[in-house]
Design goal:
Distance between the termini: 44 Å
Shape: globular
Oligomer: single chain
Number of strands: 17
CATH topology of the largest domain: Nucleotidyltransferase, domain 5
Helix content: 25-40%
Structural class: alpha+beta
Strand content: 15-25%
């Protein structure tokens, strides 16, 4: 009798726990690979641990954009990720667990109807194989403004700064491969005077935010390399490492990559980075960043700025931050200081100067550092000595969680 009572209690407890727990599965279909994130939340959208971690994560390479002529192969590449994600979600919760796939800059840049064909194949695959709550509209090329908003939401969620009004939140600049995103919260008065299509209202955890977002397509780090090499043409690029001879491929185009006979040069590289950014483009608004884009005007929501993704990766490669650091307070000037060393290096000694550099970046570290400095100072008009936080992971309740847009997407899916 006692055993039967305990068994019934455990069943009842399990059912109650299931009712209080929610899951979300988010696929990030990026330019270099596909990733899946599984998050678990309580009834108040507080993040819960899955086993010993706050998220389940898995990845495959290459990304969907690597299959422009074979949509079915693109969809099939997600199979191991879907299988693992579904296994994480308790069976009784799968039918109510949202499944969303957002494709980012890599798929945006495919020619013709290749991206549409790939997404249709993914929808068909999810329809046939997924036991989760799948809706066709949840498989799409993620708008850059959504990517920016989700990244802002993810970082502010992890910092637990979403319940104190817009002035308590942090701004975010996220440097990807194909695009760079900016997002921060504005006051009511600033939002009411904003040009169209820059500010969106979002109800998040019971608070209304006016969110400035913009995605600068073709200004991500990998895209900027291609633009720089294209502008310099066959004359040699002053940002390419001394002694380097090679080619650089981006979005189906191949560029010759070599320094000029006069060698790598920081000053000339800086001038070239400003050309890439189009800092002198006409601006029809007050307060523009670069390429004629309205900046949002600044304010309290932009005072505390977090910079992420390739800003962190390049900082780690160049010794600006320790490789095992997750966040660090830095000043934009440190990218220029590191660039001075990188632009003086040559292909024979650069690895000894920067031991953490990856093989594929040996020819481009000077270029990357100069571009990131120019992006912050010339593009977003930060003071070179203004402190910002470069971030990879955020400490959330004693655990480190990756600062990435899928968490923001999951929060919005379950709080709407």
């Amino acid at each position: 009798m006692k055993k039967m009572f305990i068994e019934r209690f455990l069943v009842l407890f399990s059912l109650v726990a299931s009712e209080q727990q929610k899951y979300a599965v988010v696929f990030d279909a990026g330019s270099t690979g596909s990733r899946v994130h599984v998050f678990s939340f309580d009834s108040d959208i507080g993040l819960l641990k899955i086993d010993q971690d706050y998220e389940f994560y898995a990845a495959v390479t290459p990304g969907l954009s690597s299959y422009p002529d074979d949509p079915k192969a693109a969809a099939d590449s997600l199979r191991p990720l879907l299988d693992q994600a579904q296994a994480v979600v308790p069976q009784e919760l799968r039918s109510t667990t949202p499944l969303k796939l957002g494709a980012t800059a890599g798929l945006r840049l495919l020619p013709g109807n290749a991206s549409e064909a790939i997404l249709e194949a993914v929808k068909e695959y999810f329809e046939q194989e997924s036991s989760l709550d799948y809706r066709p509209e949840w498989v799409s090329v993620l708008e850059g403004t959504d990517e920016a908003a989700y990244m802002w939401l993810a970082i502010n969620y992890l910092l637990e700064s979403l319940r104190g009004g817009f002035s308590q939140t942090v701004g975010v600049v996220d440097l990807g491969g194909g695009s760079v995103q900016m997002a921060y919260a504005l006051s009511e008065s600033a939002a009411s005077n904003a040009p169209p299509a820059y500010v969106f209202q979002k109800l998040i955890l019971g608070t209304n935010y006016n969110l400035y977002t913009h995605s600068y397509l073709n200004y991500g780090l990998k895209a900027a390399r291609a633009q720089s090499l294209n502008i310099s043409g066959g004359a040699g690029n002053p940002c390419v490492t001394n002694g380097y001879q090679g080619t650089y491929e981006y979005n189906g185009e191949v560029y010759n990559a070599a320094p000029p006979r006069s060698g790598t040069n920081l000053r000339r590289c800086r001038a070239l980075a400003r050309k890439v950014l189009k800092v002198d483009a006409p601006c029809s608004h007050n307060n523009c960043t670069f390429d004629g884009i309205w900046s949002g005007g600044g304010g309290d929501g932009f005072t505390n700025l977090y910079i992420a993704s390739y800003f962190y990766d390049t900082a780690a490669e160049s010794g600006i931050v320790k490789v095992d650091a997750n966040t660090a307070r830095i000043q934009p000037i440190v990218y220029r200081d590191a660039a001075k060393r990188a632009c003086r290096a040559n292909i024979e000694n650069i690895k000894s100067i920067f031991p953490a550099i990856e093989e594929g970046d040996l020819g481009y570290l000077c270029m990357d550092l100069v571009y990131e400095y120019s992006l912050l100072v010339d593009g977003f008009h930060l003071d070179p000595f203004e402190e910002v936080t470069v971030v990879k992971n955020v400490d959330y309740k004693g655990s480190l969680i990756g600062a990435a847009w899928p968490l923001g997407c999951a929060v919005e899916l379950l709080s709407s």
